[in-house]
Write a structure and sequence with these properties.
The structure is a single chain. With 209 residues, this protein is mainly beta. Helices cover 6% and strands 59% of the residues. It is built from 1 helix and 20 strands. Strands 1-2-3-4 form a 4-stranded antiparallel β-sheet, with helices on one face. A 4-stranded antiparallel β-sheet has the order 5-6-7-8, with no helix packed on it. The protein starts with a helix and ends with a strand.
Length: 209
């Protein structure tokens, strides 16, 4: 049942060595501080370890309908659910920042390379004028990221053939960012609202600390 799957996954996550967790049907995927990807099969309220992949530092786990995706320091790995013992390396190169799975799959490097991953895992790369970013999200059919060094929330257009930076907005935060209820929020409790001018965001205003 959904409740037993959630309970089993929660039990795994309570162990302090684990960082990220994704649940896909009857399988729990976790990363730990040792840099290992672990696959557990859910059986009732218990978990059975099926596979372990040593990968070094794991920055992020993501999932789609048929895969688990693993962002490491310098590579993107994929495990197909139909072949759970096989690890496929999709990208290796510049240090990675984050991955986003939405309508398309996107990967961002710390050096500012934006990479689109096709259904066949072909890579399309564009160099943007951004660096030292964290996170990758979607807002109004555009991408966003956060420049840690300059403390800027950055909007990236992907509506044309070549992505480009639309705008940068100064915001200071130490937490994880997310868009919720048409507002930009952080895990620390900060909330920003948009100020529009002719349909475009003119500025972000902090409305709650």
């Amino acid at each position: 049942s959904t409740q037993s799957r959630s309970s089993a996954a929660s039990d795994v996550y309570k162990r302090q060595t684990y960082k990220d967790i994704e649940v896909i049907r009857d399988t729990v995927w976790t990363s730990n501080v040792k840099g290992e990807l672990k696959q557990f099969k859910i059986s009732g309220n218990s978990l059975e370890l099926k596979n372990t992949f040593p990968l070094g530092e794991i920055k992020q786990l993501a999932k789609d309908d048929d895969s688990i995706w693993i962002v490491t320091t310098h590579s993107l790995e994929q495990v197909l659910l139909s072949k759970p013992t096989e690890l496929n390396q999709i990208y290796v190169g510049d240090e990675l920042s984050a991955m986003l799975i939405a309508k398309d799959k996107w990967l961002l490097t710390l050096s500012g390379k934006l990479i689109k991953i096709s259904e066949n895992n072909d890579l399309f790369t564009w160099q943007l004028d951004i660096k030292n970013t964290s996170q990758l999200g979607m807002f109004n059919n555009e991408l966003w990221t956060y420049d840690i060094q300059n403390q800027q929330w950055i909007l990236i257009s992907i509506s044309l053939s070549k992505p480009f930076v639309i705008a940068r907005y100064d915001i200071k935060t130490q937490g994880e960012l997310f868009v919720f209820n048409s507002k930009l929020q952080s895990s620390q409790g900060d909330v920003w609202s948009w100020k529009y001018n002719h349909g475009e965001i003119k500025s972000l205003s902090l409305i709650h600390i």
